[in-house]
Amino acid sequence: MAIQKRQAKQSSVRISSRKPVLVGSGEYTYEWIEPWATLPPGRKFGNTHAVQETADGRIIIHHAGQDSTAIFDARGKFIEAWGGATYAGTGHGMDLRRENGAEVLYLAPTSLHQVVKTDLRGHVLLTLEYPQAARDRSGQPCYAGPEEYVPTFTAFAPNGDFYVTDGYGQGWVHRYDAEGRYVQSFGGKGEGPDQTNCPHGIFCDTRRPERPMIVVADRGHHRLQYFTLDGKLDHLVTNDTPAQNEDDTGRLRLPCHFSVRNGLLLIPDLRGRVTILDRDNQVVAHLGDNPNAAQRANNGVPAADLTPGHFCCPHGATWDHQGNIYVAEWLPYGRVTKLRHVGG
User: Fold this and answer.
1) pLDDT tens-digit series, residues 282-308
2) How far are the Cα atoms of 15, 20, 36, 37, 309 from residue 11, in angstroms, in the given order?
3) Is residue 131 reached through a cis peptide bond, with omega within 30 degrees of 0 on the bond before it?
4) Which of 115, 138, 160, 297 is most exposed, with the fewest beta carbons within 10 Å of its own?
C-alpha cells in the first residue's frame, strides 16, 4: 500500500510538471484541461453532445451512451448518472432552466421524435410529442407524421415560453407556452433569410433586456438568425462575405449552440473551434481552432489522434459561474474538455 501511495504521488508530480496548454490570448486565455471528466469502471461515453452547469456548480453531460445524463463535480469527479437505455443512441440536446423554484432539464432525444422535461434526477415531468398543430406558410401541416420531427435543442423566454428547434427534421422552430401548449411555428427549410438549413441550436438572447430575442444557430447556412419572441425575423449575423466555405476564418463555420455570461456569447462551432462574441456579436476569441481541416467536424477521428489545444467537433459548450468553459465534442468515445480561465 505504501508503494502504491508513493507511485501515485510521483505520478501526480509528473502530471503537474507538464507545461500547461493554453488557448486564446489576453483576457480570453484559458488552460486546456483534458481529460477532465472521469467515469467509473464499466461506464463509457457515447457521442458527447451537451453540457450544463447547475446552480450549485455541478456539471451535467448529455451523451448518446447508456445512462446518457452524467453528473460531475467541477473537478470532473463522477457523482451519478441516469437514463438507462432510454436515451442510448439518441441523446442529443439538453438545456436547463429554473421553474417554480427547481432546476429542470429539457432533453431533445433525436430519434424519439419528442422533447422530454425531467428533474435533475431523471424523473419525467413532461413529454411533448411532435406538434401536430403546426402549419407551414401555406397552411398545410408541417409534418406527415412523428418521424419527420427531429428536435435538437430548446430555448427559454423571460415570459416562460419555450422554443424547440427541429434541427434534423423539417427545419421549423416551434413555440410553446410555459405549460407546454403549442403556440406557433416559424422558420422551415429553405434559402430565404427567415428560413433554415439545420436550425441546430437556439437561445433567448437577453443581453439587451429591453428587447429579448430568439437567436437560432442556422448551421447549414453558416449564420445566426435573430427573431422577435413572436417569430418575426429581425436580423442576421453572417460572415464577412456572402459566399463562405466551411473552412473560412470568419465568425461562423457550423455554429451549434449557445451560452451567455457577462455579455459574451459562447458558440461551439462543429468545425473545430469555440467562438466568443461580444455584445455586438463581434469576435473577441476563437479558441482551440484546429489547423488540420480534415479533423474538423469529423466524427471518425481516432482518439489517439486528438491533440491538446485543438478541437475536432465542438457540439455543446457552457460557461460556469467562474468564467471557465466546458466543451462537449461529437465524438463516438466522448470528449469533454474544461477550459480554465487564466487571462484578464
Assistant:
1) 999 999 999 999 999 999 999 999 999
2) 6, 16, 17, 18, 22
3) no
4) 138
Q: Could you count the other beta carbons within 10 Å of the beta carbon of residue 45?
A: 22
Residues 6+ apart with CB under 8 A from 334: 44, 45, 46, 47, 48, 63, 65, 328
Residue-wise pLDDT tens digits, 93-140: 999 999 999 999 999 999 999 999 999 999 999 999 999 999 999 999
**Contacts for 173 with CB less than 8 Å, ≥ 6 apart:** 163, 164, 165, 166, 185, 186, 187, 196, 199, 202, 214, 216, 227, 231
Question: What is residue 196's DSSP assignment?
Answer: B
Distance between CA atoms of 38 and 19, rounded to whole angstroms? 22
Q: End-to-end distance of the chain based on CA atoms, in angstroms?
A: 43
Beta strands in 38-196 (DSSP E): 48-53, 59-63, 69-72, 78-82, 93-99, 102-108, 115-119, 124-128, 153-156, 162-165, 172-176, 182-187
- Cβ-contact 185, 173 below 8 angstroms: yes
User: Which residues, listed in sequence order, are joined to residue 33 by a DSSP beta bridge?
Assistant: 338
CA distance 300 to 288: 19
CA triple 165-283-106, angle to 5 deg: 25
